[in-house]
Amino acid sequence: MSRLLFLRRHIGWLVAAMFWVFAHSPGASAKSYELEATLVADGVWVVVGSTDNFSKTNGGNILNTGFIETGEGVVVIDTGPSRRYGEEFRALIESHTSKPIVKVLVTHHHPDHAFGSQAFEQETLYMLDESASLLEQDGEAFSDNMYRMIGDWMRGTEVTVPMNRVQPGLLNLGNRRLRLIAMQGHTGADLVVLDETSGVLFASDMVFFNRALTTPQTPGLALWRAEIRQLAQLPFSVVVPGHGPLIKDDRAFIQMIDYLTWLDDVLVDSAARGLSASEVIETAIPERFSEVEGARYELVRTVSHLYSDYEKDALSRH
Amino acid sequence: MRRYWLYAFTLFASASWADLPSDPLGSPLWAYNIERYLGQDVTVVLDERVGLSVPGFAEDSTQVPLAVNLREFPHKVNKVVTWVDMNPVPHLFTANSTDGQLKLVSLNFRVQQASSVRAAVLDEHGVWHIDSGYVDAAGGGCTAPREILTNSDWESEFGTLKTGLFSRRGNTRIKASLLHPMDSGMVGNVPAFFVGDVEVRNETSDNLLLTMTLSESAAENPMFVFEFEGGVPHLSIHMKDNNGYQFETAIGEVAP
């Protein structure tokens, strides 16, 4: 029997055997995010992720999520990068409180914040109207990219668009007063949640701290900067950035304004000098941003997202 | 059988390239594409002074910036050829520097999958100097539908040409942005439709400074950057696509 014929006859058995080996190998199901909740105020917990890029090592646990006990159930902020994260996050919430989860607020449509939604009851999921449209539009492409970047951690994850819409304004729930604020700087539709009762500000990806901000859907750096100035006026006690460590003063806002101003200046100045995109991505990162993780990597991305518009503005039409 | 053919091919390819330096990036297409774009029995040296610059990863597979910055290159520049090894049509552009004064050329390209990228410069002695880069990519750039189609008024914007003249370290730099779909012909039911020829002229002397031919790897809405040695106060640029459309303008005042 030729080798090829052998393979053809027995391919079914071989595939079955391979599946069996995969299903029973210790690595296959042992992946865990090992999430931990930190109590930041009475009844308010935060789950802090790393400031790295997506990788097959961290499974996309690079963001901060949180949950608030209101006396009339639990409000969850963001669901994480994958179904697996969502499931582990939900189990973690249920280990800290016996109250039911009544509202899950998905702050924006980026996959690291919205892809754990499957693990929660569909009728508890809420999102801004515009964010939901963006998730409908970009979700599948994000999903493909996430499978490429974190691989097996994505297993079973399907894009889930929250069925309910969240309205900006005050949300009184039990003993809590939550202020829901709709902003645009990061993706065009970004939800910020201020727990007025404790002063914990869930700024989500409007604020990155000691982690370079990302710009794939920003409507503009100047708009983003103006909204950071509004955030800085809020009566907060703790800022929970979307990425990076928690902070009790306004240093995250100061860093954001400084960084956005620097980025905008680099792009304007480079365009005025006639630099090509290849030259702009080599721009020196100022020493004062040495603690900002991923600045070079994100500069390459930002130039790809935004520089061509700056370039065209600096040219004259014929 | 196919395997023997491959062995024979490899043997043949390596035999004819006894003097070819080995590829620093180990691409299987190294010798093949050199022969295809530079010719047989050419003299090739590896040379970082060619100054090829590409990002380590493609954030957008349909728009990847490339620059060949010849500031450190000690020879006359007669010709610059660039290609993307793993693209369906690897060739990006060939630029002829008619007076040898080209100092920088930059153009955005598409990438179909992670690939090595090459820039080869022909000097006055007939030697090809090659520099390489590597772009990681999710890919699909060559077969992605054009972005311009999602913009309903693209026909009114089509052909918009914007230019600028800049002074860089005593040299003259021009930038030209053209709104053009640059269809590669690799998307279903969309025939190839792209700018294939570019010329830059010194308007004062009427000398040709540069002629350039482009291939399918060039990205939609091309942004050309050229830098020439010394001061050239009045230039013009002229482009032609494969459907006969021509785009041209004078580029006149040096920006402050």
TrEMBL record, chain A:
<protein>
    <submittedName>
        <fullName>Quinoprotein relay system zinc metallohydrolase 1</fullName>
    </submittedName>
</protein>
<dbReference type="InterPro" id="IPR001279">
    <property type="entry name" value="Metallo-B-lactamas"/>
</dbReference>
<dbReference type="Pfam" id="PF00753">
    <property type="entry name" value="Lactamase_B"/>
</dbReference>
<dbReference type="InterPro" id="IPR030811">
    <property type="entry name" value="SoxH-rel_PQQ_1"/>
</dbReference>
<feature type="domain" description="Metallo-beta-lactamase">
    <location>
        <begin position="62"/>
        <end position="243"/>
    </location>
</feature>
<dbReference type="InterPro" id="IPR050855">
    <property type="entry name" value="NDM-1-like"/>
</dbReference>
<comment type="similarity">
    <text>Belongs to the metallo-beta-lactamase superfamily. Class-B beta-lactamase family.</text>
</comment>
TrEMBL record, chain B:
<protein>
    <submittedName>
        <fullName>Quinoprotein dehydrogenase-associated SoxYZ-like carrier</fullName>
    </submittedName>
</protein>
<dbReference type="InterPro" id="IPR030831">
    <property type="entry name" value="Fuse-rel_SoxYZ"/>
</dbReference>
<feature type="domain" description="Sulphur oxidation protein SoxZ">
    <location>
        <begin position="171"/>
        <end position="249"/>
    </location>
</feature>
<dbReference type="InterPro" id="IPR014880">
    <property type="entry name" value="SoxZ_dom"/>
</dbReference>
<dbReference type="Pfam" id="PF13501">
    <property type="entry name" value="SoxY"/>
</dbReference>
<feature type="domain" description="Ig-like SoxY">
    <location>
        <begin position="35"/>
        <end position="142"/>
    </location>
</feature>
<dbReference type="Pfam" id="PF08770">
    <property type="entry name" value="SoxZ"/>
</dbReference>
<dbReference type="InterPro" id="IPR032711">
    <property type="entry name" value="SoxY"/>
</dbReference>
<feature type="signal peptide">
    <location>
        <begin position="1"/>
        <end position="18"/>
    </location>
</feature>
<keyword id="KW-0732">Signal</keyword>
